[in-house]
Amino acid sequence: MRILIIRHAEPDYATDGLTEKGRREAALLSRRLVNTPMHHIYLSPLGRAIETASYTLGPLGREGQVLPWLAEFRGHVWDEERRRFRVPWDRKPAKWLGRPLLMDLERWTEDPLFEGTNVPAIWQETLSGLDEVLDKHGYRREGGIWRVHHPNQETVVFFCHFGIGAAIASILTRIPPFALWQGTCMLPSSVTTLVTQERDEGIADWRCVSLGDLSHLYIAGESPSLYALFPEVYNGADTTTPDEWPQGPARSAKPLW
């Protein structure tokens, strides 16, 4: 089996839709996906993910199934500096480095950082949601392994978001979610691919063969959107929304990297 985790294109968070650039990204993504086998398609209920998917599903005459738990990872932690709750992956390094529990896949939600928050409940919801989907398609998680009751080479596609996408990748690769949230990035319209390996009959393992791939943008000479990254050099704006950076977002006719 193959799983594609597709992050929505550049968002307009105010309208929960896409920016003009996001619509270009979604159209370029569609060129790639219309020729990609997609046996099962699941959607976040949020507008920016549904709009991104529409550029691919429309030409194919297909629909995806909306799953409420794909509506971004909705766990939040208290930010003492901003005096409000924020998503877990927005923690500054000084606030989370040196906390061993955060790097423990089985116990990371026990860290005092999440005491009194909804993070443990949302994590359990994510585990249960993914288990239900994959069990339906032939793979059942039992402890640390995946039992195969219907081996196949089908492709399951999730149109969703960075936070929940990294959580899915965490469950499959057994890398603690905090490591993926803080140490990787799935930029807008990117495609992350995971595949099963069945080296022992009836037991599958998952391997990530690409994370945050943007080749559909690079081929077209479209610069990637930076939503989900913090400023490369300190500028006083601690935000992943480039439009809020003092110098504005980096825009170029060519890829940035």
Q: What's a concise summary of this model?
A:
This protein has 257 residues and is of the alpha/beta class. The chain is built from 7 helices and 12 strands.
Distance between the termini: 31 Å
Q: What's the total helix number? A: 7
Biggest β-sheet strands, sense, barrel: 8 strands, mixed
Mean pLDDT: 92
Q: How many E-type strands?
A: 12
CATH class equals Alpha Beta
**Low-pLDDT segments, ≥5 res:** none
CATH-defined fold name: Rossmann fold
Helix coverage percent: 25-40%
Structural class: alpha/beta
Any guess at the CATH architecture? 3-Layer(aba) Sandwich
Q: Can you tell me the CATH superfamily? A: Phosphoglycerate mutase-like
Largest sheet, order of strands side by side? 5-4-10-1-11-12-9-8
Shape field: globular
Number of domains: 1
Radius of gyration of CA atoms, rounded to a whole number: 18 Å
| Strand percent estimate | 15-25%
Spell out the helices and strands N to C. Answer: EEEHEHEEEHHEEEHHEEH
Which helices and strands, and how do they pair?
Blueprint lengths: L1 E6 L3 E2 L4 E2 L1 H14 L6 E4 L3 H14 L4 E2 L10 E3 L4 E3 L6 H4 L22 H18 L2 E4 L2 E4 L6 E6 L1 H12 L3 H7 L7 E10 L2 E11 L1 H6 L37
Parallel strand pairs: 1-10, 4-5, 4-10
Antiparallel strand pairs: 1-11, 2-3, 6-7, 8-9, 9-12, 11-12
Provide structural commentary.
- By secondary structure, this protein is α/β, with parallel strands linked by helices.
- The chain has one domain: Phosphoglycerate mutase-like (Rossmann fold, 3-Layer(aba) Sandwich).
- 29% of the residues lie in helices and 22% in strands.
- It has helices at residues 20-33, 47-60, 93-96, 119-136, 162-173, 177-183, 215-220; strands at residues 2-7, 11-12, 17-18, 40-43, 65-66, 77-79, 84-86, 139-142, 145-148, 155-160, 191-200, 203-213.
- It has an 8-stranded mixed beta sheet with strand order 5-4-10-1-11-12-9-8. A two-stranded antiparallel sheet has the order 2-3. It has a two-stranded antiparallel sheet with strand order 6-7.
- Helix 1 (20-33) crosses helix 2 and helix 4 packs across helix 5.
- The chain is globular.
- The two termini are 31 Å apart.
- The mean pLDDT is 92.
